[in-house]
Amino acid sequence: MTVTLADVAARAQVSPATVSRVLNGNYPVAAATRERVLRAVDELDYVLNGPASALAAATSDLVGILVNDIADPFFGIMAGAIQGEIGGPGGRAGGERLAVVCNTGGSPERELTYLTLLQRQRAAAVVLTGGAVEDAPHAAAVAAKLRKLADAGTRVVLCGRPPAPDTDAVALTFDNRGGARALTAHLLGLGHRRLGYIAGPVERTTTRHRLEGHRAALAAAGVEEDPRWTVYGRYDRQSGYEATLELLRRDPSLTAIVAANDSVALGACAALRESGRRIPEDVSVAGFDDLPFSIDAVPSLTTVRLPLAEAGARAGRIAMGREEPPPGGIASVRGELMVRGSTGVPRAS
Amino acid sequence: MTVTLADVAARAQVSPATVSRVLNGNYPVAAATRERVLRAVDELDYVLNGPASALAAATSDLVGILVNDIADPFFGIMAGAIQGEIGGPGGRAGGERLAVVCNTGGSPERELTYLTLLQRQRAAAVVLTGGAVEDAPHAAAVAAKLRKLADAGTRVVLCGRPPAPDTDAVALTFDNRGGARALTAHLLGLGHRRLGYIAGPVERTTTRHRLEGHRAALAAAGVEEDPRWTVYGRYDRQSGYEATLELLRRDPSLTAIVAANDSVALGACAALRESGRRIPEDVSVAGFDDLPFSIDAVPSLTTVRLPLAEAGARAGRIAMGREEPPPGGIASVRGELMVRGSTGVPRAS
DNA sequence: CACCTTGTAGAAAGCGCTTGCTACACCGGA
DNA sequence: TCCGGTGTAGCAAGCGCTTTCTACAAGGTG
């Protein structure tokens, strides 16, 4: 059998209650007694029974982190930063929490199921990252879940995700619109007038916001947009590759391609190169996020840097109650335009 | 208050035991009764109390996945694949498990702490990914933990990690040595004789194995190695950048650089380019892993493809008991040499 | 010296669920 | 009619911990 609290108590010649108190450090215990207990714990190699403890205390030390795609560094970086603050190991004494990353794969059902699972585990906090799915019933279901979680005492934080109305979830949103607008404005400033846009999945808020920013910039500059210039895809490299070929087929005279994110931009570069076009002499390319590899693209990628790690860390701290939530529970995190080699003045047409 | 089993039982006019049995589906319950219970569950919006359930049943539905760096796609891809098989949501009915990814940051202490945390939660299975740290005391501590976990009924699987002796953990190892050897042999075949090697952190098994493979290839070709040609670093881009500068300083006549992994190789490319060298005309570069972005490097990266997703999926299935472990509990997974544009014949010196 | 603090430790009542065992119908066969 | 299945459901005993309440000793105070 495994060692229990009672075994430790017997060995240390104290009551189980005392052992529990020593372990939790939330009650005065005489130094000598504590010593004895700790020695017994050590000798017996005792490990607390998490479920039992959670049941009795009606709280758990689990913190859930939901991500759309764990293989995507965008989420990996945020998750890492969040987890770093949650502490898990390495955190401040006693407050050892198990930060768990759940991969929804962008599927609404999985998202809900994971939330239920976390609710079932009575998680201490939940952090949802990345764009939400814009499906009314699903959004409502998620909001209801979040409300229920909050009611049960779980702290809910959204990181890089739009606020959830009717929920007291704290939201740290990325200013996707603003970033996209600045990016496209940069391109327009260089003289581009025929810009292709490779969007992400239609139903994602991130997709919509970035596209809106792009269009706002066009509108502000008085550039009329051709509907053929927008293609929807996924947030991965291959999607960028395919979408670019499609874009070129529709209008070979495009002088710039704005991608939904850096991975997509990389795919776009590959497609352009294969079609014999030079970057940026023939076509400029821009991404979004500024993931680590973007600077190593050739030419290096013009993009919008999102402070993924910083935002994640902050979300983590808020989830742990170690930092005040922003006023109103909502904060917008701005991106920074990184102008690099992949964008330049358009070729004289 | 939250809804409990008893509330559901009252509502459905049955005993708590019956409700439990309906929910777990491990005992015959009359269809009509089941119906009634399920309706009550639905109406009350009941969510099982995980800790209580785990305590009573002495098992939990948690599965832990330990990774060295969650922001690194190498781990992200594996973790995603493992999680996909673990099921979490989307898995087969009833078997809903919470697959949790824990980020050790490559720190031995964190690794141990996470293992303890998982042991505390009475995890159903644990998958450790990536290279282990080669520190005798630490290795022993981990082995002891793994043994204890196994004793407690937790299935332990190592994925992309060398077998742990004296442990009945199933191991799916990557053939780093063989892959590295093939890679360097390729370079030697092209005519290179002066090859720089950028290794990972010294204490990692992965680092050692890849380096050994590299040296084995050199030895087999009768090429004498200069100690100055090896530099140790981290597994990230910046490390590759810095190490390359160091390598060039030590010996500007190198005609090829073999990197510990693709990220490092990317950093190496950047450094070479900045120093005015062309790839592969002046210097060939090779990576390892074949992460998604490697094919988009310019020129695209010669590397060794590791079947990350496949291995992860297999590890996940084994962890779930849905696939037989390999004979002897150990399987070696081979990499595949991907020859691409970043390697070529050396310049005529 | 009685009395109240203060500091420590134990007794015991759960926390919400699972499950072995028991109980009760109801059925067909003897 | 009696009896041994067979199919369902309930009882109740925990699972291993936390925490309230109580107990007691020691020390200070009037």
From TrEMBL, chains A, B:
Name of the protein this chain belongs to: LacI family transcriptional regulator
PROSITE patterns: HTH_LACI_1, HTH_LACI_2
Domain of life (superkingdom): Bacteria
Gene3D superfamilies, A to Z: 3.40.50.2300, lambda repressor-like DNA-binding domains
InterPro entries: HTH_LacI (IPR000843), LacI/GalR-like_sensor (IPR046335), Lambda_DNA-bd_dom_sf (IPR010982), Peripla_BP_I (IPR028082)
Organism whose genome encodes this protein: Streptomyces achromogenes
Pfam families the record matches: LacI, Peripla_BP_3
Keywords of the record: DNA-binding, Transcription, Transcription regulation
The UniProt record lists the keyword Transcription regulation: yes
CDD domains: HTH_LacI, PBP1_LacI_sugar_binding-like
Domain HTH lacI-type: 3-57
